[in-house]
Amino acid sequence: MDNPIGQVKRGNNIDLIALLNTFWFERKWIVYAILTGVFLALIITFSMPVRYKAGAVLLPQTDGMASIGQLGSLASLAGVDINSMLGGNSEIAPEIYPYIMGSYPFLNDLLSTIVYSADRTDSILLYDRIRKELERNPFKLIKSYTILLPWTIKDLIIGGKKGTIVSFGNEIVFYDEEKQAVLDVLTGLMDVRVDRRNKLISINISADEPFVAAQIAERARILLQEYVIRYKTRRVSENLQFIEERFEEKKKEHDSLRHELLSFRDANRFLVAERAELRLADLENRYALANSLYQTLAQQLEQARLAVKNETPVFSVIEPVKVPVRKTSPRHSINLVIGFVIGAIVGVMAIVFKIVRFYLKL
Fold first, then answer.
1. Enclosing domain of residue 13
2. Which among 4, 107, 216, 354 has the fewest CB atoms less than 10 Å away?
């Protein structure tokens, strides 16, 4: 059968039958492209690390102001203003949670997690585990001496450490290139999603072992709750700490004056003297003032403790962390389908290019 490529174009029109016959005649290009695509998909699939995904679903609840409405009314009758100590009910938007989990402090704390093997006979820091996984990655070495070869040579000649400078409050920390690479890997293993309608927080962690994935996911859940609670209660906690310090100072002063007043009364019980009466009046006035301040601070202390408890978010675990049974990647069937489709498209494009080139030469 002759190649029907010359019959595809008839004047300004295209003969669809001739076009289909041309594709059938040149079908070997499509077959070769599909086989190549499937072969490359197999190579990529079997070279990809196996991943298991574990996660949890949380529902944060921060409606504490409404829960103490009656208590606040009763306290106001006694002259105690609870609402002034609560710091407001500024709920943390769910959209903030992914930023918290992507922050350097959070990732740094998560890297300090000790993960155990399935039989719990071996343990290792998550940082060391990811670092060793990076060292075993063959693509890193290939990329360093192919695509990144100029930069590899530059680093060998110039030397020096590359990294990122991070500020943790008053502390400046330098993350070298190795630690930054570990952080990047950990960030890629985490997936945080927010259901804005229901305000649900989904935390998913991927790892090469199912038990390890579950451990990291559980630690990430606990850390996220701690970070949110710390952020939400920071104002009232600082206020509580300040009142506790003042309360302890006034308590010591109150006890000291009380002891001094009782001792003076015992020592001068049967003594009638103007100087003693003046001294006694002075001690009683000082003790009365100290006692008044002590009682006021005691009320404020209970008020501040209630504020901290009220502002502490409550997390309902809708879906707890479970050890995954099935791997999530690589998905062999999906990769093969993708390789097949890409190969077919490349084969068709090759035949189209051949037809276009044929008519351009005429």
1. 1-48+330-362
2. 354
